[in-house]
Here is the input.
Amino acid sequence: MSTTIPDLRQLRYFVAVAEEQHFGRAAARLSMTQPPLSQAIRALEETLGVELFARTRRSVELTAVGADLLPEVRRLLAAAEALRPLAQSLARGEAGVLALAFVSTADYGLLPLLLRDFGARHPRVRLQLAEATSDVQIDELVAGRIDAGLVIAPLPPRHAAQLAYLPIAREPLVVAMPAELSARTGGPTDHDGGETPVSLADLADVPLVVFPRHLAPGFHDTIMDCYGAAGLAPRVGQEAIQMQTIVSLVSAGMGIALVPQSLRHLRRTGVVYRPLAETAPMIETGLVWRAAEVSPVLAAFIEIVRAHAATVGVPGAP
Here is the structure.
């Protein structure tokens, strides 16, 4: 038995003969003469090691094996014919896979907007989404396990040469606090908190729930600097690596947290979000990717991100 792999031409010949049940008619349909068609079918049978047709002087019929093989061959040919348009779609970024990671803060404002716009323009792209802290995302990017990430700035200097960064959104920090504490400091007790500001000085003795510094040094330092600017030293009560967990700890009365303004969309019973009376520091979220590896799909996503950044007028976003 031959170890040669059948080619597409032989498979097309097989389908034509099977459908016409006549070598002469199949040859005419294929715009060729009958002898080379018969030779090609014989070569295919030798390659496969089975007889595909039962031949008589007047007719040709599929064998049982040939009949079972026919639908499989049709599927193979259909898949082969789809390769060219698929390749062109991949080259244009209209199809493919995008592995995207994101910080938990992006899930409450930025991420849904970007995914909605990208999905509307590129519905054939399959997204692989994973929530991760900024430091984990950088490691995953450098290792080539994800294509891009939504991170909180700044990037670690040691990877600056490998990575490209595009700022997308900047938002102020607000205070997430227990409703009872909000009432005691002259504020409302509903989750949104309205625009009633609260001073850090009024919360100086309340424990702070915060990200561990080794996981989010930029975010952690911004919060510490906010206390320092007010002449205060925060009393860290609990640490957590997910925004949902931080807000849940606030809901349980474990302390307060300084969180990005978009976290107002994360509603928890007993949690109130209020603006700071002091000048609120800004948190920047951006897109990061390997500068030397931009696939067509990633380029299409970057275009969506760049358009969004321009719309909201983020400094440094070209």
Remarks:
- The longest strand covers residues 163-178.
- The CA atoms of residues 98 and 127 lie 5 Å apart.
- Residues 94-169+284-312 form a domain with the D-Maltodextrin-Binding Protein; domain 2 fold (CATH 3.40.190.10).
- The chain has three domains: 8-81, 94-169+284-312, 170-282.
